[in-house]
Structures are given as structure tokens and as C-alpha cells.
């Protein structure tokens, strides 16, 4: 009789444990689905109930932080971040894991890890070596936002055997503006890896050492796309006086991000030689390149007016026509008026006609 009672108790205990485990798994799975479907209020109620029952449930706390972030519930988000800090390293590990493997939650985890701050730094630095681009870029953003408290581990990372970690650390140190990193960054200009060299030169430029522009520019001709991207974006964003010839050579790069950044950088040059490749770029099928070309032509100004007028006279593609007309309106040169008036009077395309009217109003 005693044995039978013991067996019944054990069976009931096991059933309860399994049942609790099943509820836990289901709550987390359903909450994820609700997040995916933007049913934030339902996910919030479900997860709040779960963390009341299981306050040490790290995954539930992470998802609850995401729910609060989506709803801009700042106070609740900060309170949950405080609980995650109390949970320590397991919480940081879980946040990083979700960022790594659940792209739909990556933006939320980026925000939460930024708020966690210092306790997350040592875990995040190795993630700079991720071969998944969005994870690496998110990690750079988090460490940049954490700021000065991250500089010690980042400077140590400049000696990492992993080239991606070294390059990522250089980028963050340049973003933060830590001039104590200048010496190790100069050392990494001699690295065998082209990405490390270019990112180090970019970081040094941001820190005030502008003597390595040639190294940044040389990145435009590298075989590796990440190197060309880093160089092109740096020239677009920070290099004050880009050299035109390397940009002209890179204007038809096979990578859209590189091409768009190069095209945008050509507008900074304000050189008549850039007009022809920019006119070619404004006809690109990719809207990012086309928009970049329009901005660059606007910056180029007067030398771009007549080539744009000639383009409008012969172009049939509506998207190209719209963008060229917009650009002429933005430049505001009266030499475009006759052509724009003709387009407005004769075009059978309502969108083109509308753009011509808007451009004429800007000029007049």
C-alpha cells in the first residue's frame, strides 16, 4: 500500500512538472508568435503573467523587454532592463543569442543591450567577429552607443587574432572618438588584412589624423565587398576632399551599396567630370543609386543643368524622368524653364506632368 501511494505521488509530481514545462514552452512560443503578428498587448499580458510565476525566466524577461520596446513603454522597459541586469551574465548571453539568431527581434535586442550597457561589453566585443552582417553592424551600433566605458575592451580587441574583431573595434573606437586609441590604430595600418587597414585609417580620420586618406581611397579597388563598402561610405560621409579619379573608376561597382555611396560622394567633388557618370547613375534601375545620383547632381549644381535638360528631352523611362525633373527643380536654374514648360504642356504621363509643375514652381 505504501509503495502504491508513493508511486501515485511520484506520478502526479512528474505530471505536474511536465505540465509546467509544457506551459512554459507554450507561453514563450505563443508570445513570439504574437510579437510576429504585432499583437503586443496580448504578448505583454502573457509574458507579464509568466515572469510573475517565474521571475528567473531569462528568456521571458528578454521577450517582455522587446514587447515594451515595440510599444514605447519606456518606464516598463527600463524596469525590465534593471531585472535583466540583476539576472547577470545568463541574461546578457540570452539577449545576444536572440540578436544573433532571431532577426525579427534583433532591433529590440540592440536597444535592450544598449540600455544594459557596461555589463554587456565583454560579451559583445567577440560578437564583432560575426560573419552575419546585420549582427556585426548591430554590435557596432550597441558598443558605439554604450560609449566611453567600452574603450578599454575595444583597445584590447585591436590585438585580436580575428580580423573582423579588429576591424569592428577600430570602427567603434573611431565612432566613440577615443584619442587614446590612436597609437594602436596606427599600428594596425600595417595589418595584413585589408579591412583592418581601411577601418583603422577611417577611425584615425575621425580622431583627427587625416594623413591616411590614400589608404581609405585604396579600399575602393579591393576585391572584398566589405572593404569597398567601408571605404565608399567613409568617403561619402567624412572625407572632406575626395579624389575624383578613384571615385570615377568605382562609379559602376557591382555592389549597390558601394555604388550608391560612391555616386553620393561624387557630388561632394563639384567637378564637371562627374556629371556624365552621375547622369548615367540617375538612369539606374535601382532606386537607391538613382536617388543618390539625384542628390549628387543637386550638389554639383550649375554644371549639371544642361546635361539634365538634354536627358529630359530624350528619356522615355518615367522613373528617370521624374527624378531628373525633381533635380532640376532642386537646383533652381532658370535655363531649365523652357524644357520643363514643354514637358508640362505635352506629357501624357500625369506623374511626369505633376513633377514638372512642382519643379517650375520651385524655380519661379
Overall description:
This protein is mostly helical and 364 residues long. The protein has a domain at 303-364: Alpha Horseshoe (Leucine-rich Repeat Variant). The chain has 22 helices and no strands. It has helices at 2-36, 40-53, 58-70, 74-87, 89-101, 106-116, 121-124, 133-146, 151-157, 163-176, 182-188, 194-206, 213-218, 225-237, 244-250, 256-269, 275-282, 287-300, 305-314, 318-331, 337-346, 350-363. Helix 8 (133-146) packs parallel to helix 10 (163-176) and helix 16 (256-269) packs parallel to helix 18. The longest helix has 35 residues, at 2-36. Mean pLDDT is 92; it is low at 1-24.
Name the descriptors.
single chain, mainly alpha, Leucine-rich Repeat Variant, 22 helices
Order of helical and strand elements: HHHHHHHHHHHHHHHHHHHHHH
Main beta sheet: strand number and arrangement?
Answer: none
The CATH class of the domain at 303-364: Mainly Alpha
Structural class: mainly alpha
In short:
By secondary structure, this protein is an all-alpha fold. The chain has 22 helices and no strands.
How do the strands and helices of this protein lay out in sequence?
Elements: H1 2-36, H2 40-53, H3 58-70, H4 74-87, H5 89-101, H6 106-116, H7 121-124, H8 133-146, H9 151-157, H10 163-176, H11 182-188, H12 194-206, H13 213-218, H14 225-237, H15 244-250, H16 256-269, H17 275-282, H18 287-300, H19 305-314, H20 318-331, H21 337-346, H22 350-363
Amino acid at each position: 500500500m505504501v509503495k502504491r501511494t508513493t508511486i501515485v505521488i511520484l506520478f502526479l509530481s512528474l505530471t505536474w512538472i511536465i505540465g509546467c514545462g509544457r506551459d512554459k514552452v507554450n507561453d514563450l512560443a505563443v508570445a513570439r508568435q504574437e510579437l510576429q503578428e504585432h499583437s503586443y498587448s496580448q504578448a505583454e499580458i502573457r509574458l507579464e503573467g509568466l515572469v510573475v510565476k517565474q521571475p528567473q525566466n531569462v528568456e521571458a524577461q528578454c521577450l517582455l523587454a522587446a514587447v515594451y520596446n515595440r510599444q514605447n513603454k519606456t518606464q516598463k522597459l527600463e524596469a525590465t532592463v534593471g531585472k535583466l541586469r540583476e539576472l547577470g551574465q545568463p541574461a546578457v548571453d540570452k539577449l545576444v543569442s536572440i540578436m544573433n539568431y532571431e532577426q525579427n527581434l534583433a532591433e529590440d535586442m540592440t536597444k535592450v543591450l544598449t540600455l544594459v550597457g557596461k555589463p554587456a561589453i565583454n560579451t559583445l566585443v567577440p560578437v564583432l567577429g560575426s560573419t552575419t552582417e546585420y549582427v556585426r553592424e548591430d554590435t557596432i551600433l550597441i558598443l558605439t552607443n554604450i560609449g566611453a566605458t567600452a574603450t578599454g575592451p575595444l583597445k584590447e580587441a585591436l590585438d585580436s587574432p580575428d580580423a573582423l574583431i579588429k576591424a569592428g573595434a577600430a570602427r567603434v573606437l573611431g565612432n566613440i572618438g577615443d584619442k587614446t586609441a590612436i597609437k594602436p590604430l596606427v599600428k594596425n595600418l600595417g595589418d595584413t588584412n585589408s579591412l583592418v587597414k581601411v577601418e583603422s585609417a577611417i577611425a584615425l580620420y575621425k580622431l583627427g589624423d587625416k594623413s591616411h586618406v590614400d589608404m581609405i581611397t585604396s579600399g575602393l579597388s579591393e576585391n572584398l565587398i566589405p572593404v569597398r563598402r567601408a571605404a565608399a561610405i567613409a568617403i561619402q560621409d567624412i572625407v572632406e576632399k575626395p579624389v575624383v579619379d578613384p571615385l570615377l573608376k568605382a562609379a559602376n561597382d557591382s555592389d549597390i551599396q558601394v555604388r550608391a555611396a560612391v555616386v553620393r560622394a561624387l557630388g561632394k567633388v563639384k567637378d564637371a567630370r562627374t556629371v556624365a557618370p552621375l547622369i548615367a547613375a540617375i538612369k539606374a534601375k535601382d532606386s537607391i543609386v538613382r536617388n543618390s545620383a539625384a542628390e549628387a547632381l543637386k550638389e554639383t549644381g550649375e554644371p549639371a543643368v544642361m546635361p539634365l535638360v538634354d536627358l529630359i528631352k530624350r528619356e522615355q523611362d518615367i522613373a528617370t524622368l521624374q527624378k531628373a525633373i525633381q533635380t532640376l527643380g532642386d537646383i533652381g536654374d532658370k535655363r531649365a524653364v523652357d524644357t520643363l514648360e514643354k514637358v508640362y504642356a505635352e506629357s501624357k504621363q500625369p506623374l511626369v506632368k505633376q513633377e514638372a509643375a512642382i519643379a517650375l514652381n520651385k524655380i519661379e
